[in-house]
Amino acid sequence: MPEPLSEEARLAADIERLKEEFPKTRDLYREVCALLFFRFGITPTANRLYQLVHRGSMGTPTAVLSEFWAALREKSRVRVEHPDLPPELGQAAGELVANLWSRATAAANATLDGLRADVETQQRDARQSVAKLEADLARTETALEQRTSALLTAQVRIQEVEQSLAAAEAARQASNDELEQLRQQTRERETMLAEERATFGAERGRLRAALDLAQTRVAEAEKRAALEVERERAAYARLQRDAEAATPALADARAQIQALQKQLGDVRHRNGTLEGQLQTLRETNAAYARELDAWRDKSVPASAPRGGASRSSTRKVKTGSGSRSGG
Length: 327
What we know:
Elements: H1 7-21, H2 25-39, H3 46-53, H4 59-76, H5 87-245, H6 254-297, H7 304-326
């Protein structure tokens, strides 16, 4: 809202308008006198007129001002004419009416001055209110700009947060996918582990049965070998006794001794073979015992190659046991 013009500004604007309407200097001074006296309530003077108009010489506003006051006095004089009224009474009545008009004019001017003062006070209050409103408006605009800036910053931050949330959601989805894959792999591994455990249990049972059978066979073989060795020792002792008994007839029984020595060599060879087989069975039994302990200590299923090796070892045990049983 624009601020109201001051009295000087309004007076200057009116004088500029009169300069355009009245190009003649005297007419312009006369209108400025009327403007000052009747509109603004200012008593015109020659200096004041010249300062406002700045035309002609200094005598021009003086002459125009004298004409203005004379015309004003002439217009303010009231003439009362009546056929039956004496001239003195008419003049007195005219002066009375003139005095009344002057007093009324003075009262009107006083009222006008009061109104003008009220208007000026209202104008000042209005200007102060306008200034206050403008200050409030400036503060409001500043606060609005700050809030707009904060809003823009918040919008940028919201966009950044939304982008971060989208990235986090994508990362979470990827993590969920990876977790699901890990869970699937875990289920598959648990299934494989259960199968391996079942296979390991069955294989361990077979190995335990094979080991028990091998131990039984080794014990039986050891018993047979011990009996064979004892029989061979008894035969050797008997042969030695027979040889000693046949010493007197050594010349006659040389051929028989040679045969007996050959038989003795065969028996020794057979004894050595049996002892070697017995040692082999003992080593095989110890190997099976170590393998069984290794199987018992394992906490994870055995792999296919070891299972194959165990089955091969089982076959070897069976084969060795069969061989010893045959021997």
